[in-house]
Amino acid sequence: MNSSCATGETSNAQPNPWVPQTARIREITPEVDNVATYHLTLVDPAAANAYHFQPGQFNMLYVPGAGESAISMSGDPDSPETLAHTIRLAGNVTKSISEMKVGDTLGLRGPFGTSWPLEACKGRDVILVAGGIGLPPLRPLIYRLLAERQQYGRLHLLYGARSPDMRLYTAERSLWSERGLELKETVDRSNPGWLGNVGVVPLLLERLESFEPKQTTMMICGPELMMRFTARTAMQRGMTAEQIWVSTERNMQCAVGLCGHCQLGPEFICKDGPIFRYDQISPYFKVEGL
Amino acid sequence: MSEGLQAANAPPCFLSKEQFAKLFKVLRALEYDVIGPTIDQEAIVYDRISSIDDLPRGWTDIQEPGKYRLEKRNDDALFGYVVGPHSWKQNLFPPVTTLSVADRTDEGWQFSEPEQDAPKFAFLGVRACELAALKIQDRVFLEGPYIDPQYQGRRNQALVIAVNCTQAASTCFCTSMKTGPRCKAGYDLALTELPEGFVVEVVTPQGEAVINALETQIATEENQNQAEAARQQAVDQITRTMDTTDIRDLLMSNLEHPQWDDVAERCLSCTNCTMVCPTCFCSSVEEVSDLTGDHVERERQWDSCFNVDFSYMNGGLVRNSIRNRYRQWMTHKLATWIDQFGTSGCVGCGRCITWCPVGIDLTQEVAAIREKQT
Ligand SMILES: Cc1cc2nc3c(=O)[nH]c(=O)nc-3n(C[C@H](O)[C@H](O)[C@H](O)COP(=O)(O)OP(=O)(O)OC[C@H]3O[C@@H](n4cnc5c(N)ncnc54)[C@H](O)[C@@H]3O)c2cc1C
Ligand code: SF4
Ligand code: SF4
Q1: CB-based contact B326:B260 (threshold 8 Å)
Q2: Ligand 3 centroid to B353 CA: how many Å?
Q3: CA distance, residue B16 to nearest chain A CA (Å)
Q4: B360 lines ligand 3 (CB under 6 A)
Q5: Which residues contact A88 (CB under 8 A, 6 or more apart)?
Q6: DSSP state of A71
Q7: Contacts of B104 in chain A (CB under 8 A)
Q8: Each residue's pLDDT tens digit, B33-73
């Protein structure tokens, strides 16, 4: 429901939404401790050709015997041949993936879900806020924003990580800065030699100078509490809930709105989300245990 | 059952019990697998049946919150009961089913659909509230952005023979939910049982094909009056009600109501209510591997929002208390279902009330919330 707020992409839906495609691991990029990026290729050339996704969408990656996990695309939506997924080792499925090698195959269903609202950003300042493993689902958006850099006002990335050595995409981040994405970082715990900010992500927003709330669209991806506090800070600084978008997470067994697990109030995170405009989801977001 | 084509507004006909006995043979000849009411372990359940003798002739069900028992009737009614623990969802959305198959080959994993032909069911004895439940599950499995192929295969071929209720249980509240007791749409044939036979309404060509293979007469005015009186009996017996006025907003604006704590004191989180509910559709998927691990099937099983790990995420639980789980069940069923599917998720069949081991009655929980809004 409420699909008006974010754009759904179901055009790649397969006739039988339950049957995965075979994907082969083309390349593995170790990122930080327990996080790596897996570049996949769909084995069936027709499927590979037809595959398109929008920034913020996700796939269900399937390791037979272990199970399925929802993983966002972290690569460039305009070169889907680099079908990248940045995965943090969390439990059973992600552990099985972490043990795979280049050339191994796994199952892939997708793309699923709503995407970041690029249209709502045109001609405006954009602030992206990422916490930890919340950066990968924003990366396709960063590629898009930078590819069409002149269409947007100021671009900021506020990025929080647990510690300096847990920051993702180190080499790329400086490239992004060069191309016009202003980067502000913070860590929960500093290392010797770290001269940057220490503290939670909303602090970066509090300290952000020359910030024009009315002119800004914000997109947040990270732990739920971090997203709530960031949105609150943004609203304290003059933004409205209609200018803020968040990416949500719930247990998912099907990704196609049939298993019931991912409900949050009236929303199915898998098909109505994962990306929601904040005013749409915040009434439910705030209710403990909903 | 198939909608669309309505057979010419044929007048109702009368089918004697003798001819009704031949229905089973007719359905078999049309290659239907007949599912209907039969007694098993002291309950009337829906199962494969092959003759009129499998029906619960002369039995009825007595239902109250947390109570169900069969009792002998003083007549030979074949459909003289209300509803039992089963519903037709068992057949359209089976409790366990294979979704996909993975095989390890030299080229890596290959994925395929399981090989299975959709069974062709004839459902005999579908109540009005159950017709509504079928319609609701159609919305879930067939009318969203993604279609469940197994449900679709089974549903498209199914023949629906409805039977109007001529009595109601104390737990019924279909009149509040506007789903019954009269069968109004969504069937191929609808029967009303009289002592000597049935008044039959035929609405689809599929239903017509069945009834044409049997000897019937045009229903007399007396037959029709008798049928109407029998149906009215069910209406008159319904005592339970649920006030559904603004129910969506009522529940969603009372998410912190103390009644959720109150019901949590009683609820055992046993999942019974969700298993018996004809519209509940939650499921989870498990891996079933052969010994070599080279052939793996994904198996879907009914799940329940009352199961502890249903909301497992990132090593923890979102709904970490019975209060949160009961609130999820009831707000989904009665409130957010409306946002999601444009209809309530409850048809007023009363199963969840009867089969709750501690007799929790959602109509009373709603009333309690309505009485003291926060
Ligand atoms: C829309 C969406 C996008 C995501 N994108 C990414 C990403 O880009 N990178 C990444 O590393 N992680 C991502 N996640 C989280 C990732 O899905 C979980 O970390 C992963 O499912 C854990 O599975 P596991 O078997 O390794 O862990 P276990 O703890 O063993 O989990 C068992 C099962 O529970 C379910 N589950 C557990 N945690 C989650 C969760 N957080 N979300 C959904 N289902 C869960 C899954 O079905 C999982 O297989 C995303 C989640 C969602 C909902
Ligand atoms: S919620 Fe209870 S009364 Fe309503 S349809 Fe489900 S089982 Fe029947
Ligand atoms: S309401 Fe009753 S049937 Fe439902 S989970 Fe609680 S105890 Fe079980």
Answers
A1: yes
A2: 9
A3: 43
A4: yes
A5: A34, A35, A94, A133
A6: E
A7: 64
A8: 999 999 999 999 999 999 999 999 999 999 999 999 999 99
Please report the beta strands in chain B, taking only residues with DSSP state E, as ranges in sequence order: 13-16, 33-40, 43-48, 59-64, 67-72, 96-105, 108-112, 121-126, 159-163, 189-193, 197-202, 217-218, 283-289, 295-302, 312-313, 316-317
For A3-112, CATH number? Answer: 2.40.30.10
ipTM of the complex: 0.92
The full set of domain ranges for chain A reads 3-112, 118-247
Instruction: For residue A130, give both structure tokens.
Output: 């990422």
List CB contacts (< 8 A) between B298 and chain A.
18
Q: Decide if A10 contacts A275 (C-beta within 8 A).
A: no
Give domain A118-247's CATH architecture: 3-Layer(aba) Sandwich (3.40)
Among B74, B71, B69, B40, which residue's Cα sits nearest to residue B54? B40
| Non-local CB neighbours of B176 within 8 Å, separated by 6+ positions | B240, B241, B242, B243, B244, B348, B363
pLDDT digits (tens, 9 = 90+) for A100-150: 999 999 999 999 999 999 998 999 999 999 999 999 999 999 999 999 999
Picking from B298, B306, B317, B323 by the largest number of A CB atoms within 10 A of its own CB, the best residue to mutate is B298
Find chain B residues with C-beta within 8 A of A263's C-beta. 328, 332, 336
Nearest to B284 among A10, A15, A253 (CB): A253
pTM: 0.94
- Does the C-beta of B93 come closer than 6 Å to ligand 3? no
What are φ and ψ of residue A216, in 5° steps?
-110, 145
Helix (H, G, I), strand (E, B) or coil at A279: helix
Q: Identify the DSSP state of B214.
A: S
At residue B349, the 3 state secondary structure works out as coil
Distances in Å between the alpha carbon of A25 and those of A34, A38, A83, A139, B30?
17, 7, 10, 20, 51
Closest residue, chain A, to B253 (C-alpha)? A283
Supply B306's token pair: 């009352």
